[in-house]
């Protein structure tokens, strides 16, 4: 049973930190008014937080009659979180401060050795990112890793990740925890991208959204009521297995889904080769289409038609406020412009479709949002049932400037 005095203290601390996090710079009087706590209680808590290095004074209120009040905000650099986007070809690592601002980032090719070698690479890359920017390792408190697969809560193994060999045979988060000595959370990369887009661009505006990623594979992240939907086994959003496009009853469709077989990277390059006898990678196919190549246009129109069907299937079940198209292929404006009219041709109502704003940093943003929430809870709400501290996102423009 929880100590009631400790529970009350944690609730009070949590509410004060939430107020400062959300509305800082803010005065003690404003915190008291916002939380309903007494000015004395708020003053004691803020003094304690300031003494421990979590909040700092940043000036005084302006424009008020009488004595101006001191205002406080969270100390951004008091602690850091790591957000990692693990892909089949690249792994990106970003270190972010308590405001969500990226303070350091590194990217390198993903090791092809697989399994524990991938764990070692991520651990090393996080530490090298810190070292190369003169950041103390001890500042990093939580890490979130996005993986192109389905993490199993029971075993820690990452299933359905054909592009990262061997990760289905190791306890991924446990090994990373041992490597780094901090809390490590592992989440599907498309789920993180959905959270990232919601957190930074649509929070409170469009709390029911779907992020559809099209690249080497195809998958969706679903956010309903501002919360990520994982499903009973964590595999919600595996839309690559929607049963159309290729024959869903063929054996190959159990490994690479029927929809994915006709709409992702391999499908685009293969279809163009079938039509022309020429090998082109995906960017070259897009370039050819822009240059007027009729075969390239046909390939992209076919992909757009299948993606439109997927969007309609999703919208028929979920009715999202918008569908965000992302991924290395999906984020191309040329493809999005082809998808929209195809949707209108086969669905009776409008489905708002928009390209990803965050691009290849959407998953990093989602990982940052989860890591910051977990860190705030660990620091200021430990033992409080159902505790949650919502961290406001940095401004999108500033965020993208920091990571590019």
UniProtKB/TrEMBL annotation:
Domain of life: Bacteria
PANTHER family, sorted: BIFUNCTIONAL UDP-N-ACETYLGLUCOSAMINE 2-EPIMERASE_N-ACETYLMANNOSAMINE KINASE (PTHR18964:SF149), ROK (REPRESSOR, ORF, KINASE) FAMILY (PTHR18964)
Gene3D superfamilies: 3.30.420.40, Winged helix-like DNA-binding domain superfamily/Winged helix DNA-binding domain (1.10.10.10)
Organism: Parasedimentitalea huanghaiensis
Matching InterPro entries: ATPase_NBD (IPR043129), ROK (IPR000600), WH-like_DNA-bd_sf (IPR036388), WH_DNA-bd_sf (IPR036390)
Stored Pfam families: HTH_24, ROK
Family: Belongs to the ROK (NagC/XylR) family.
Name recorded for this polypeptide: ROK family protein
């Amino acid at each position: 049973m929880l100590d009631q005095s400790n529970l009350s203290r944690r609730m009070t601390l949590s509410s004060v930190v939430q107020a400062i996090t959300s509305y800082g710079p803010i005065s003690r009087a404003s915190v008291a008014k916002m939380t309903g706590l007494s000015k004395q209680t708020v003053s004691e808590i803020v003094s304690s937080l300031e003494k421990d290095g979590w909040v700092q004074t940043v000036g005084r209120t302006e424009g008020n009659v009488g004595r101006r009040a001191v205002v406080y905000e969270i100390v951004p650099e008091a602690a850091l979180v790591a957000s990692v986007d693990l892909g089949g070809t690249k792994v990106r690592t970003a270190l972010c401060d308590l405001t969500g601002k990226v303070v350091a980032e590194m990217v390198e090719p993903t090791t092809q050795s697989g399994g524990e070698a991938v764990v070692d690479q991520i651990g090393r890359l996080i530490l090298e990112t810190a070292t190369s920017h003169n950041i103390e390792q001890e500042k990093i408190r939580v890490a979130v890793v996005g993986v192109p697969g389905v993490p199993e809560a029971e075993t820690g193994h990452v299933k359905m990740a054909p592009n990262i060999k061997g990760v289905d045979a190791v306890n991924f988060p446990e090994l990373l925890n041992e490597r780094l000595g901090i809390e490590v959370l592992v989440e599907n990369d498309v789920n993180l991208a959905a959270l990232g887009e919601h957190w930074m661009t649509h929070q409170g505006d469009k709390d029911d959204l779907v992020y559809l990623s099209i690249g080497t594979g195809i998958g969706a992240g679903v956010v309903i009521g501002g919360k990520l939907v994982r499903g009973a086994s964590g595999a919600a959003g595996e839309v690559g297995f929607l049963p159309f496009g290729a024959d869903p009853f063929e054996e190959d469709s159990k490994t690479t889904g029927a929809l994915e077989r006709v709409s992702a990277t391999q499908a685009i390059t293969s279809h163009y080769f079938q039509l022309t006898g020429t090998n082109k990678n995906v960017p070259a196919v897009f370039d050819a289409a822009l240059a007027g190549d009729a075969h390239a246009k046909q390939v992209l129109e076919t992909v757009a038609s299948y993606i439109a069907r997927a969007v309609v299937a999703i919208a028929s079940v979920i009715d999202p406020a918008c569908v965000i198209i992302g991924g290395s292929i999906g984020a191309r404006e040329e493809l999005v412009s082809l998808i929209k009219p195809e949707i209108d041709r086969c669905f009776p109502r409008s489905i708002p479709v928009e390209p990803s704003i965050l691009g290849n940093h959407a998953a990093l943003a989602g990982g940052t949002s989860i890591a910051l929430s977990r860190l705030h809870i660990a620091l200021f709400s430990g033992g409080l049932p159902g505790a949650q501290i919502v961290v406001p996102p940095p401004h999108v423009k500033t965020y993208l400037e920091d990571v590019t």
